[in-house]
Design goal:
The complex is a heterodimer of chains A (297) and B (355). By secondary structure, chain A is an all-alpha fold. Chain A is built from 15 helices and no strands. In chain A, helix 3 packs across helix 15 and helix 12 packs antiparallel against helix 15. Chain B folds into two domains: 229 residues, 3-Layer(aba) Sandwich (Rossmann fold); 119 residues, Beta Barrel (OB fold (Dihydrolipoamide Acetyltransferase, E2P)), CATH 2.40.50. In chain B, helix 3 crosses helix 4. The chains are: A mainly alpha (297), B alpha+beta (355). At the A-B interface, helix 11 and helix 12 of A face strand 6 of B. The complex binds adenosine-5'-diphosphate and magnesium ion.
């Protein structure tokens, strides 16, 4: 019975399909065309322009721009901030998603909401908030100074590399946990409980049972976190004012561009191409991770 | 008593999942926790295991209060409802897990896993992953994995729920045999009374977080202590206003009774065998006949109530609308939470069981 109906439906669909080939074909073509055009105008052309402009004056100028002291310093700060942000957020992201999905406790919903704050707060505001707390007038500054005195160090949390790192951590905070939470939730707690019943310690349960389930999601989260970390502008801009010392690549690009001379604009594009290169690497990694992750499921 | 639950209470928020649960299980017994879905069976099992903590009361294993002993140290094997096999480990690794975390030597692990693979009949499948196994095979792996560290007590949560009805019976027999062979004290959860009756030495009936009755299958079947048990076990019809049946004058009018098909005899008026019992019987009309595979289930309208009876296919055929004689051997009278057995007083002196 059912089969017959299905067959009939198919037949009638085919008839209609023949009669209406043109509109059926045109709309998708049009949509596809618009999509591709949009993609070209909004993404490909600008990025190609960056590469083109950066190389317009020849490789020598390009090389000089890349090797400039300010650029190298910015690259260093960017890499430091990215690496620390990724490490810290991976650790906290793991802890937070583990707590949120494998245990039941009071205030769970609040914690879950708190994690998402960086998504909804503008990065500039986040940077300014740091400034308010740790800046010269900030309430936390005396304590930081006391700690510095005690440790005999001279760590400043704003207008310094640690400040840049903190701001970067703030904006990239949710990336890892947001990737992990759905996966851990879907997995449930049964396998962990089975491991516990067999006498496994917490760390063994995580390594042997939880980790294999989440490794691809974790890697994916780390990649997104890294991409966001080295591209961050607003939050870092608020706490970083010293070019050649605490500037990151995006800030350096901005400074070069704002300088306005033909030469500095070319340099700005050269430095931008570094960021584009990093993005492409991340994109390829992301693709590989997605592919591997899907295949294993 | 080997395992004891002493006045256990457990709330989830303001929902009472276990109310004053109190029972003991002897060593070597295979016990079923039976009850409808949501009655709190899994919660009780998890409290014994230590995966859930009771609000009050003691869990005692081998004479020792284990309230503060963590789950992994109670010497309990647990077979989870959907087996919870480690998805990224092979059959071999699954079974070896409990030994590895105990830092058992490689040689010993190999020996023990081999032994268990043989016991559960999974030779040649050691390298497979759980998703390459059938439901029955997964159950075997879960069973072997739970037994690997040689626990003193085995807990199984709905061990057959994830299995096709066709192979379920086969696996029941298998599991019963295995547990007998290993000789381990076991408690399994089920909502299926046939399963409990067939597999268990003793049954604990749970309803709405309360222990209704504990006893052997025969005890529970023959002498249900509460109205819940009398309705839950066996196929029974509840009659809300029972009155005017011959031989049951002691029962007040409009009482609630339970009548099971095996309490009822239905015969034609020219039946020789039951001739002497005619005075003790009522008349009724068949309103429904359903074929149940090896017997017929008759529904009859008697004295304004409908009664269900079974009829062997060997006997003369009957049809809807036919007048029959209906004899009630006994009924359960329900009074609040109690169920009391009443026998047909007109059958005094008649050897009913010889009929
Ligand atoms: N972690 C929990 N939080 C809240 N309610 C729960 C929890 N676990 C079980 N319950 C509730 O307790 C009752 C008994 O559950 P359970 O023991 O799983 O029943 P059964 O195994 O007999 O089907 C159910 O009503 C269930 O909703
Ligand atoms: Mg259950």
């Amino acid at each position: 019975m059912k089969k017959e109906i299905v067959v009939k439906e198919k037949a009638s669909n085919q008839k209609e399909g023949k009669r209406g080939t043109k509109p059926h074909g045109l709309v998708p073509c049009l949509l596809l065309g618009v999509g591709v055009l949009f993609f070209l105008i909004m993404l490909v052309f600008p990025l190609a322009e960056v590469i083109y402009r950066s190389l317009k004056e020849g490789l020598e100028v390009y090389g000089a721009a890349i090797m400039a002291e300010n650029t190298l310093s910015a690259l260093k700060v960017t890499l430091i901030a990215t690496i620390i942000a990724v490490l810290v957020n991976t650790f906290f992201g793991l802890c937070a998603s583990w707590c949120l999905t494998k245990f039941d406790f009071r205030g769970k919903n609040i914690l879950s909401t708190l994690i998402d704050i960086p998504f909804s707060v503008s990065p500039v505001i986040a940077g300014l908030a740091y400034l308010m707390v740790f800046g010269r007038m900030g309430w936390a500054t005396p304590y930081v100074e006391k700690i510095n005195e005690f440790l005999g160090t001279d760590i400043a949390l704003v207008f310094s590399v640690p400040g840049v790192v903190l701001a970067t951590i703030f904006v990239t905070f949710p990336f890892v946990s947001r990737e992990l939470i759905p996966v851990m939730q879907a997995q449930g707690t049964a396998e962990e409980e089975a491991a516990v019943m067999l006498g496994a310690k917490g760390s063994t349960v995580f390594r042997k049972v939880t980790f294999p389930h989440i490794k691809w999601a974790l890697l994916y989260g780390i990649i997104l976190c890294a991409a966001r970390a080295f591209g961050e502008f607003g939050a870092v801009y608020a706490v970083s004012k010293a070019r050649g010392k605490t500037f990151t690549l995006p800030l350096e690009v901005d400074a070069l561009y704002m300088a306005g001379s033909a030469e500095s604009i070319t340099q700005a594009f050269a430095v931008s191409s570094l960021l584009v290169l990093l993005s492409i690497i991340i994109l390829v990694l992301k693709q590989i991770v997605e592919y591997r992750g899907k295949r294993e499921l | 008593m080997y395992v004891e639950m002493k006045h256990i209470n457990k709330n989830f928020g303001d929902f009472e999942a276990a109310k004053d649960i109190d029972f003991g299980i002897e060593q070597g017994k295979l016990v079923a926790l039976l009850g409808p879905s949501g009655s709190g069976k899994t919660t009780i099992l998890r409290m014994i295991a230590g995966l859930e903590t009771q609000d009050s009361g003691d869990v005692v294993i081998e004479g020792e209060v284990v309230n503060d002993i963590p789950a992994g140290k109670r010497g309990i094997g647990f077979v989870f409802q959907n087996y919870a096999l480690f998805r990224y480990m092979t059959v071999w690794e699954n079974i070896a897990f409990g030994l590895r975390v105990k830092k058992t030597s490689k040689k010993e692990i190999n020996k023990r896993v081999k032994e268990l693979v043989q016991l559960v009949g999974l030779e040649g499948m050691e390298k497979r992953y759980p998703d390459q196994l059938s439901g029955g095979q997964r159950q075997r792996v879960a069973f072997a994995r739970a037994l690997a560290p040689s626990p003193q007590l085995l807990l199984l949560d709905e061990p057959f729920a994830a299995i096709d009805a066709k192979v379920r019976k086969e696996l029941r027999d298998w599991l019963k045999k295995m547990i007998a062979k290993v000789g381990i004290t076991s408690i399994f959860v089920t909502h299926d009374q046939d399963e409990a009756v067939e597999v268990a030495d003793e049954i604990i009936i749970i309803n709405e977080g309360k222990l209704e009755q504990m006893g052997t299958p025969v005890e529970i079947y023959k002498r249900p202590k509460t109205s819940f048990v009398s309705q839950f076990i066996g196929t029974s019809s509840v009659i809300d206003s029972f009155a005017g049946f011959k031989g049951f004058d002691e029962i007040k009018e409009n009482s609630q009774v339970i009548i099971r098909p095996e309490f009822v005899e239905v015969f034609k008026s020219d039946n020789e065998k039951f001739k002497s019992l005619l005075p003790a019987s009522e008349e009724g009309v068949i309103t429904e006949i359903s074929f149940r595979g090896s017997y017929l289930e008759l529904t009859l309208e008697v004295n304004g109530v409908s009664i269900t009876a079974n009829r062997s296919l060997e006997r003369r055929s009957v049809e809807i609308g036919e007048r029959m004689h209906v004899l009630l051997y006994r009924v359960y009278l329900l009074e609040e939470d109690d169920a009391r057995l009443y026998k047909n007083s007109l059958l005094k002196g008649v050897d009913v069981e010889a009929l």
